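Customer ticket, subject: "Can you confirm the structure for Discoidin domain-containing protein?"

Message body: Hello, I'm evaluating your service for our small team and ran a test protein. I'd like someone to confirm that this is what the system normally returns, since I don't have a reference to compare against.
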Amino acid sequence: MARPSHSRHRLIAVLSLLLALVAMALAPAPRASAETGWWTPSARPAPDSGINVTGEPFKGTDAQGHVRGFVDAHDHLMANEGFGGRLICGKPFSELGVADALKDCPEHYPDGTLAIFDFITKGGDGKHDPVGWPTFQDWPAHDSLTHQQNYYAWVERAWRGGERVLVNDLVTNGVICSVYFFKDRGCDEMTAIRLEAQKTYDMQAYIDKMYGGPGKGWFRIVTDSGQAREVIRQGKLAVVLGVETSEPFGCKQILDVAQCSKADIDRGLDELYGLGVRSMFLCHKFDNALCGVRFDEGALGTAINVGQFLSTGTFWQTEACAGPQHDNPIGLAAAPAAEQQLPQGVAVPAYAGGAQCNTRGLTDLGEYAVRGMMQRKMMLEVDHMSVKAAGRAFDILESASYPGVLSSHSWMDSAWTERLYKLGGFAAQYMSGAEAFSAEARRTDALRDKYQVGYGYGTDMNGVGGWPGPRGADTPNPVKYPFRSTDGGSLIDRQTAGQRTWDLNTDGAAHYGLVPDWIEDIRLVGGQDVVDDLFRGAESYLHTWGASENHRAGVNLAAGASASASTAEWWNPFVSFAPGRAVDGDPGTRWASEWSDDQWLRIDLGSSQLVRRVTLDWERAYGRAYRVELSADGVNWTTAWSTDTGDGGLDTVRFAGAPARYVRVHGLQRGTQWGYSLREVGIYST
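Agent reply: Thanks for trying us out. I re-ran your input and got the following:
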């Protein structure tokens, strides 16, 4: 055989080198350790971010059969797809790899001069190094609100650190989209919500592919609490879809006129449920056709109030609060960039310091939406609702003993925490610094002990809120790397991506991968008991969800029953205020008495029934002092419950069950100059 020529040797060498380079490009990215197991993918995009966690993620339940793990009750994985597609720069994953996923918006190049939303939210001139991978010189950062913080590998690190439930709130805002200078798509909110839901499923498939196919990855979208429990038992992350948007189902209002109907709400709820959504906000930032909002403060509040005007034709309106709960103060700080969007001659109004509550509460359409969510076993987010709206929502949930209520990121008035726990709801705190988070956790610790519940956090990442800054390298109790996860099974080191390594002590909570580091900081600052409450969060969240799924509406024994009254108001021959109007199932009708104190409404159940609960939906004319009385014969009465501090609205009265054929609501003192007026009375055995 002839010997190969020198040129042939060179050709073989070149081909060998090319093949080696291709093999290197296609090879899995280096891992933090050489360990392998079910939690280690067979391949990753190359190159990719590090995870920097070793050890097997914990599986199974505790000795009592409870699932374990942390709950992020409020995150925005896909916010980059909302707001016109260019408000949040970067993506949580990309088929083209990390360099494509973690790159800045095109208008931010070369130096951030046109990063308008960045300098609106952060201050300064917005200038920054736009390069993401691999240098990450200026972002992600705890105070950069416009850059991707939810890269899939960083979420993986949080899962490896003990997180077991993540609520991905699909989010957008049509008005912000419409006024922002840069966008690459339309501003319809429901279109954005649909896209974000699909992208979440795409991310699940993307991760599954790394582990060998459908269902094999750690990122599992769940649609019921039983699925979630099984996912967590397997040691994986249960991902729940929620919605946080300003005008769901097209339910905006213009000059106080609703732009949607009950049919729109039903169609919208059915569609969202079909997408897998199981929790949602009914209003967010702007008053809409469903409810008024809890205000934002300072310059941001001024900017959002401008958006409120552009969306609805009206600014926020305030009044003195009726009770101890209150909305956030609007503040009078200027927001020149936003105020320039107002028509000539229109200015943001001034507000009286003593009037801190939104005049708008839960509308009739909003009540219809709340009841529609209950029928579909969905969970209601009360954060962002005005005090007036949240109070009415609580009334409705309490009247049905419905536990599906969430406060996921510190926007509910804190005085209502026990009311939420008493219903069976779940609370999480915004991802603030370790000192503030621990102090707030300790403030509500006694309530969690009383109701035997765990706690959650709401990172709100990609939610334009700001995250914990560094406590400093010289703090006396810094996070020391590496550290052990709460369960003790994983070792967590500093997180590295490309050429950048993050340290919570000096960088703060710059991105989602630093959630475990932040929890370790809470342990050092607040103590192990705060972290233990957080570690019980998964069980408590799923308890609320499961109880919502298993809720059964009670039978209203008063529906269509015979009713009589001491008096009935008569002033309009075309409108009836007869006693039967309070039991006809129509909230648009009502019984109204004459204008004097001692009045009663009697309901005949037809036969003796066990009575445990009575609901009273007062019209504006309500009873300040009244009794609920029971009788077997309609002659001899026993007081089952009484109050002299009634404040109207929707009252739910509970007492020890007693048999009765007749139930009487006996008004003793009016709350207004008028008589007593009830839209609907409900009587229940449960």
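A couple of notes from the result: Residues 82 and 172 are 5 Å apart (CA to CA). Residues 1-34 have pLDDT under 50 and may be disordered. Feel free to reply with more questions.
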